[in-house]
Amino acid sequence: MSKKAIPSEITGIEKRPISRRDLLKVGVMSVTAATLANMPKAQAAVNPLGFCPISGLPGDTVQLFGPDFGSVASNISVKIVDGSNYAFIRPISLNGDGEVSASIISAQPAMQPGVFQVTMGEGYWSMPGNLPSQLTVTHPICTWLGNGGDRFQSFQEFDMPMSGGSSPGCYSYWGNLDFSGRLSADLIVPFNEDCCPLCPPGTRMSMRLCGATAGQAFEFEYQATLINTVELYTHQIADALCTIFLSAFNSDFGVNMDCVQSSIDETRVNISVGAPGGSPFVSGAMQLELLHGGGGIGQDSLDCDSQVPDTIAGDCDSIGPSCPSIDADFTPFIFS
Q: 291 and which of 21, 69, 204, 310 could share a cystine (Cβ 3.0–4.6 Å)?
């Protein structure tokens, strides 16, 4: 006996087409949930996380799917992790239905396909109006601290095929943990045509870092881009980056972070960051980025050359005699 279709008006069931977005969300979450079910119980506390698309580059936007990301985007820390390599991500918006839009900001040069990690905590996006006169910002300074909130992780990997080009005048320097458990990276300012290691006005100076101590007892993330309004030497740029970093965490959380800059030579300075109380970090990464010429003002991400820059004047062995004296000392302050 053949079966006859039952009219929808009898069953009361309304047939609606499923959108491509819903199919992707259900499909990815089903895969991650199935993976979780087969994991050892010790790891099952991690919440499943889905994402779309499956690959991307700095500047691209991704959608992340989870049970609940709350209602405040600044409270979310998002990273892509491949072993000791990291990609910095910035949440953009929440839709209130377990979905967040996020922008890929930058990735370490050795980055291979990695997993998304989302951690709930407390965060702030600040546009302080009392910055030193030598500095300005066009995007919020982002601070975040973990507080034992929910953690999410994808069990599929996100592919990041690195592009072959770079933007002229843009240099990116990455670092991870040093021997003492501090986050550490070297910043290099190339000589100009007068053999002066100066950043011209309008240079975009970015500092991005994240780290966690053992057992996530202390966990933080920071992203900020400063723009100088006057010429600054290498050590002055490092001083500015550390000062705003320290000021941000003191202003937002009352937390005293540790940031030290040490000159290596005229063009190179090391910046290292430690946790409050001196506890060593067990994971994390730091990125320092310079974009000369002002072309990146207002941009959140840019493909930068990760190599050490050549000096513009190739015969410079030391600072030239005509380099100007610049007075720019920075002291930590409370944002207002």
A: 204
